[in-house]
Amino acid sequence: MSTPDDDFLVVEDLHAGYGGARVLHGVSLTVGRGEVCAILGPNGAGKTTLLRALCGMVKGRGAVRLGGTGLLGRPPDAVARLGVAHVPEGRGTFLPLTVEENLRLGAFTRRDRAAVQADLERVHGYFPVLRKRLKQQAGSLSGGEQQMLALGRALMLRPRLLLLDEPSLGLAPMVTRELFGIVRSINEEERTTVVVVEQNAHLALGIARQAHVLETGRIVLSGPAERIRADEQVARSYLGYRV
Questions:
Q1: I need a labelling partner for 129 at 20 to 30 A (CA). Which of 28, 36, 120, 153 fits?
Q2: Which GO molecular function annotations are given, in alphabetical order (predicted)?
């Protein structure tokens, strides 16, 4: 029998797209509280659309519930107030603003000033380089630093659910490994539920508990991440690497 924690994020028969073009065709999945879930698949499979539907950026039909509260039909700011933080592909940092201004924007839903200040220190603990860059414009940061800033800004929301879209995009392998190590720490230390869309399937499966493979807007494979990563036929057919 499932418990509420097993069904923290519930997606049922989700259909979504842009205008008249349907991208997702009946996606269903559940993610337990405190789990990391990897969403994998080829380009154009609908992975980004799925995250956008979860955070309210794309309208959909079906059902999406977080801790029992429905998310579909709510605008993105209302979804954020329910504890959903989205780090979009391409990072979405506000380049003319300083690092500190970007981080404080992440706490736009909060009024607890002392706690916000404490969370700035918490983010600096995960990303010490950001402390050194507080007064710099975000546009002057390296690609890796901008990705760290985007993740740090999301953490300022104190999210219950963290949505990451292609966090390794354009980053050097060493920076990517560091970033995924930080995501693992955030999940383990704060029990933040994470849904990560990632082309580097091997890395994503290394931090995930479960995984779903999307193809043409439908889930074609689901299971424990460890089992999917170890299956050579699955890796070759769907994920683009050899075990």
A1: 36
A2: ATP binding; ATP hydrolysis activity; branched-chain amino acid transmembrane transporter activity
**Domain housing 150:** 92-158
Handedness of CA 60, 84, 171, 230 (dihedral sign): negative
| Maximum Cα interatomic distance, the chain, rounded to a whole number of Å | 52
- What whole-number distance in Å separates Cα of residue 185 and Cα of residue 115? 21
- Per-residue DSSP letter, 98: B
Domain count within the chain: 1
Under 8 Å between Cβ of 127 and 155: no
pLDDT single digits (tens) 148-204: 999 999 999 999 999 999 999 889 999 999 999 999 999 999 999 999 999 888 889
Residue 113 lies in a domain: yes
> CA nearest 72: which of 46, 87, 50?
50
Whole-angstrom Cα distance, residue 48 to residue 43? Answer: 9
